[in-house]
């Protein structure tokens, strides 16, 4: 059996949580067989840090974007900043993200979130990049927004929607990504969605430093722990872990590399979608 090649499609290893031991964290994931980590920004500074890591560390690629929780603090010309990053460092940037909507209590105004989200969807289309979509308590609204941009490609990060919403995302040609939350005892909905997800549309992630999987729950999460997510997913899907690794390598390449940019989105399926008003 060949050594595993895990891909962590979402880990915020540029955040201050890793400032004291980032080099050790990188060494641990390399020793654990993690061959690619995608590091998304949540605002302009963390996007720039993600790009810096990608330019200086083998096996890292960056995503740049403004998270819905950070949209209130975004500078008016945030799209120009993101565009400049993409222009200067395009070879290391594989997506626009983490972007989206978050309707948890206490989050910024929904309409402000939607404005920032849509401006970044427009940027992604202009740059020919996929999007990494945050959709906490807002899966349907995020899918509605994506429908307005035929040809958009992307992944529903840390999926928390229903099986029906998963089917809708897949019909739109999107990938769907799951975290270590599928190992939590109460996460029956996440496990049901993962089981329903066609393996051709599946991705896995840690969302480090958050959501460490069992048996490491309560600790700071890191990409080396992705093996636990793969193991849980292989059991839920009834697929050998080695086979799952190969499939997810293919999926990640199709979404995040140049060769996948012409074939991923099913453009005809994202036109004339019904839309839910964001309130």
Summarize the main sheet: 8 strands, parallel
Q: What is the β-strand count?
A: 8
The largest beta-sheet arranges its strands as: 1-2-3-4-5-6-7-8
The residue-averaged pLDDT reads 92
Secondary structure class reads: alpha/beta
CATH homologous superfamily - what is it? Answer: Metal-dependent hydrolases
Please give the domain count.
1
Please work out how many helical segments DSSP would assign.
9
- Tell me the radius of gyration: 17 Å
Descriptive notes:
- With 279 residues, the protein is of the alpha/beta class.
- It has a single domain, classed as TIM Barrel.
- It contains nine helices and eight strands.
- Strands 1-2-3-4-5-6-7-8 form an eight-stranded parallel beta sheet, with helices on both faces.
- α2 (44-56) packs parallel to α3 (78-89).
- It is globular, with a radius of gyration of 17 Å.
Sequence-ordered SSE layout with sheet pairings:
Elements: E1 6-8, H1 22-31, E2 34-40, H2 44-56, E3 60-64, H3 78-89, E4 93-100, H4 110-127, E5 131-134, H5 139-147, E6 154-156, H6 163-171, E7 175-178, H7 188-196, E8 202-204, H8 226-237, H9 241-256
Parallel strand pairs: 1-2, 2-3, 3-4, 4-5, 5-6, 6-7, 7-8
Summarize the structure.
The protein is of the alpha/beta class. Helices cover 39% and strands 13% of the residues.
Using brief descriptors, characterize the structure shown.
TIM Barrel; 8 strands; alpha/beta; disordered C terminus; 279 residues; single chain; 8-stranded parallel sheet
